[in-house]
Design goal:
The protein has one domain. With 275 residues, the protein is an all-alpha fold. The relative contact order is 0.23. It is 80% helix and 1% strand. It starts with a helix and ends with a helix.
């Protein structure tokens, strides 16, 4: 993988952990996530006006990814309702490289080597370590965190294929994100009504900014997937679990035990080996 791709993906990992911290710290996470998507939709739609549309072969993948992103949003919000950033985030992000590697091998024909298999073992071990406290399973949001990982894997493989077929990764990204940014508010309005979404409340600027950060982070990842294996890019991105643990400790008042740090390190190392 070229050094500039590595540096870009690491930067995207930091951005991704940062916007998750903004979401985790919000009072109404579903509303915050929806406002993030509104920001994504506005910026993406404006940008799309200045770009040629992606190839027709990629449009199916763009629509499918937008739907999968909405599912990811809902599961992520639910997992943060009862889980710490430093625990829930590594589980959801750490499980996705395993699923992405399998999906990329089956659907896109990418190979899985011995190092990747060892990486899978390390990631799984790190996740199990985070999920247990002593001999007791102690992550109430575990099913939602793992479900989030499944959605991450599904949309990552979908976007990896779609971006390659598009002939224009940036155009594919902004069109997909515009669709996603429209679908999420529609789901929110269906659940809570339009007045609940547009009623002014504290945290609007923070959520809107978080949406811009998330768009930049994912745009970098999709760009990287066009010139490097999907498994490698997604694996390197999951080093964000380390950033999340530190952000949770310094800014959200979460505990940072030796066990949690070691588990995050194991997940990050395993994710890189998968790549």
């Amino acid at each position: 993988m070229p050094i500039h791709i590595i540096l870009l993906v690491l930067f995207a990992a930091l951005l991704h952990a940062s916007w998750n911290a903004l979401l985790r710290g919000g009072a109404d996470r579903l509303w915050s996530m929806t406002i993030m998507c509104v920001a994504v939709a506005i910026v993406s739609a404006v940008t799309a006006l200045f770009l040629a549309p992606p190839a027709k072969a990629s449009w199916f993948y763009a629509v499918l990814s937008a739907v999968l992103h909405v599912g990811y949003n809902l599961f992520l919000v639910r997992s943060y309702r009862v889980g710490d950033l430093g625990q829930t985030y590594p589980i959801s992000r750490g499980s996705s490289p395993i699923l992405i590697t399998v999906g990329a091998a089956v659907i896109a024909g990418e190979n899985v080597g011995l190092a990747a298999m060892l990486g899978i073992v390390l990631v799984s071990g790190g996740i199990i370590s985070l999920a247990f406290r002593g001999r007791r399973l102690a992550v109430p949001s575990l099913p939602y965190a793992l479900g989030t990982g499944c959605f991450i894997a599904a949309y990552s493989v979908t976007d990896g294929i779609g971006a390659r077929l598009s002939g224009a990764p940036m155009a594919y990204t902004v069109w997909m994100c515009a669709l996603w940014g429209v679908l999420m508010p529609a789901v929110y309005i269906g659940l809570r009504g339009a007045s609940s979404l547009w009623t002014p409340r504290p945290g609007f600027a923070t959520a809107f900014f978080g949406g811009l950060v998330s768009l930049l982070a994912y745009g970098i990842v999709i760009y990287a997937m066009t010139s490097a294996p999907m498994g490698a890019v997604s694996a390197l991105r999951e080093t964000s679990v380390l950033f999340a643990a530190l952000i949770g400790y310094f800014f959200l008042g979460e505990t940072l035990t030796v066990r949690k740090v070691l588990a995050c390190v194991v997940i990050a190392v395993g994710a890189i080996m998968i790549g």
